[in-house]
Design brief:
Blueprint: H1 2-15, E1 18-22, H2 28-38, E2 41-44, H3 51-57, E3 60-64, H4 70-86, E4 90-93, H5 101-112, E5 117-121, H6 122-129, E6 136-137, E7 140-141, H7 145-159, E8 162-166, E9 170-173, E10 177-181, H8 194-206, H9 212-232, H10 237-250, H11 253-259, E11 262-266
Parallel strand pairs: 1-2, 1-3, 3-4, 4-5, 5-8
Antiparallel strand pairs: 6-7, 8-9, 9-10, 10-11
The chain binds adenosine-5'-diphosphate, 4-methyl-5-hydroxyethylthiazole phosphate and magnesium ion.
């Protein structure tokens, strides 16, 4: 697994994929900086009047529903329908799933459009599986990722999407495999936008390979490892956020080989 991630990272830094983000107002800057630090090229465009043209020129699309308006909801549907039409991969971050009927209706429509990858925290993934039992506290998880694993597997079977569940252990689920990532640090939950940044990095890797499961593993693993390393030298959440960009920028094969803690299981 480490070799695949290293190869994808090297490819990403050469190709510098253009990653189209229709994302939330809270993390727009964080995720753009995380993409730049890793070596990708972010563009944050969310008007329904121009998203088709940006989907055409970008290598991947990131849909993050954290702060919704009627306009951005419409833009997300226009962009994802067009992405499907032209075969552009896209990743969904269901931030705050369950907190409103408006959000849940949009999520139902986006699930029907079959995201390539879905990445959320444990509560969000559980809620996507059963909107009748919302499980989120705003945008934070109230559940451990291991307790959401079964729901994630059922959601994977239901949607056919690759499902990523974040938490103390990160899970990446396809029909054939389950990957577990043991990196990270609890302090990461005290910084807004780190899960969203993982989703953005998944988008960047989707832009350089059609091995989408490997792309999801790379995005989740790299964010988790970078966050772990950033926390080691951080005085608190403020410096963790800034250290993260430097850890993404400096990430190399040696660090990935020596520090990544990852396991893969075949179903
Ligand atoms: N309890 C934890 N222990 C260690 N790392 C964690 C923990 N919770 C989250 N993380 C790390 O933070 C990342 C973001 O996870 P999370 O906060 O669950 O996402 P979100 O920001 O979408 O709610 C995870 O991928 C993982 O690397
Ligand atoms: C606080 C908040 N409110 C709406 S979106 C958002 C950011 C969520 O970011 P993440 O899911 O990465 O913690
Ligand atoms: Mg989140």
């Amino acid at each position: 697994m480490e070799d695949s991630i290293i190869n994808l990272l090297e490819q990403l830094r050469v190709e510098k994929p253009l990653v189209h983000n229709i994302t939330n107002l809270v993390v727009m800057n964080n995720t753009a900086n995380a993409l730049l630090a890793l070596g990708a090229s972010p563009v944050m465009v969310h008007s329904p009047l121009e998203v088709r043209e940006v989907v055409d020129i970008a290598q991947a699309l990131v849909i993050n529903i954290g702060t919704l308006s009627e306009d951005t909801a419409e833009a997300m549907l226009v962009a994802t329908e067009h992405a499907n039409t032209i075969g552009r991969p896209w990743v969904l971050d269901p931030v705050g799933a369950g907190i409103s009927a408006f959000r849940n209706d949009l999520l139902s429509n986006l699930l029907d459009l079959k995201p390539t990858v879905i990445r959320g925290n444990a509560s969000e993934i559980m809620t996507l599986y059963n909107f009748n039992q919302p499980n989120t506290k705003g945008v934070d998880s109230t559940t451990a990722s291991k307790d959401a694993l079964r729901f994630g597997q059922l959601l994977q079977e239901q949607t056919g999407s690759i499902i990523c569940i974040s938490g103390e252990v990160d899970y990446i689920l396809s029909q054939q495999y389950r990957v577990e990532v043991f990196n990270g640090n609890p302090l990461m939950t005290q910084v807004t936008g780190l899960g969203c940044s993982a989703t953005a990095l998944i988008g960047a890797f989707l832009g350089v390979t059609d091995h989408y499961f490997e792309a999801a593993v790379a995005g989740v693993s790299i964010l988790s490892l970078a966050g772990e390393l950033a926390a080691q030298t951080a005085a608190g959440p403020g410096t963790l956020q800034l250290n993260l960009y430097d850890e993404l920028y400096q990430l190399n094969a040696e660090r990935l080989k020596s520090k990544l803690k990852i396991k893969r299981y075949a179903h």
